[in-house]
Write a structure and sequence with these properties.
43% of the residues lie in helices and 23% in strands. The termini are far apart. The chain has 308 residues and is an alpha/beta fold. The strands form two sheets. Strands 3, 4, 5, 6, 7, 8, 9, 10, 11 and 12 form a ten-stranded mixed β-sheet that branches. The model is unreliable at 1-13 (pLDDT under 50).
Length: 308
Amino acid sequence: MMTPQPDTGQRGTATLDPLSLRLFVRVVELGTITDVAAREHLAAAAVSRRLSDLEERLGTALLVRTNRGISPTAAGAFLAVAAREVLGDMDDLVSRMREYSDGSRGLVRVLANISAVSTALPPLVRSFADLHPRVRLQILERDSLSITEAIGDNFADIGVFTTLPYHADIEVYPFRRDRLMVLVSADHPLAQRKSVTFVETLEFEHVVLRTGTHLRLQMLTAAGREGPALRSSVEVSSYDTLCRMVECGLGVGVLPAANLAHFALTGVRALHLDEAWADRELSVCVRRADALAPASRLFLEHLRAAEH
């Protein structure tokens, strides 16, 4: 039996080796060092030395050695129970970290513009969550230009934006195509038309998205080319609100057809916008696909698989 050593004030800083703890638990369970050494493919002397070092580190006797085998002291019995819990937690930690390495667990930071957030992304987030329930998606809405800049600066993992000129050093992949429509109330002077040019809509008040969105920039740019100013009666922050304002006769609205399809509206008419710039493309961007964490790479692949 080991003689307890004087307290040197270092016990609180003692570090415990997981292998020594595991060997200790096995010795308590099997009762012999020889059997443990054989199972762990170690020399019996090496196992015995680790146990002695463990007792020295903790400053107390842990095992009683007799001709009939080895049994734990009171302190040893307590340590065996505690060590099993610690080793179990460590095994669980290793398992969890492996999940991060293969992508089955993790956090994916996504930036998306208003069009993507309100149409394409929700069903894809749902299907991805069904496939990878331990991956957390953090989705924030931003305007398209700031998305490209944020991805280039590594502030997020994946961006979904309306394709536009950008200066960020990023990789861009096609995602979805859509076309802009003009929404008017049923009693509007344009309501009987099937299509209109943008300049024709400039004769009327518009309900517009907030400043900073790519659609707002497109409309201002087009108005600048055509001559008449873009007159806005109401500025809103969502397509849902834009539709309701148009429905109430507060102006005409321009929005993607995919967004329009999500709202149950009465008393409105949707007209084709007869402009080349009315065809729009949503894109996915990343800083570097090969540098993404496994979970982020899985979500990127999920988005690209849904490309159409």
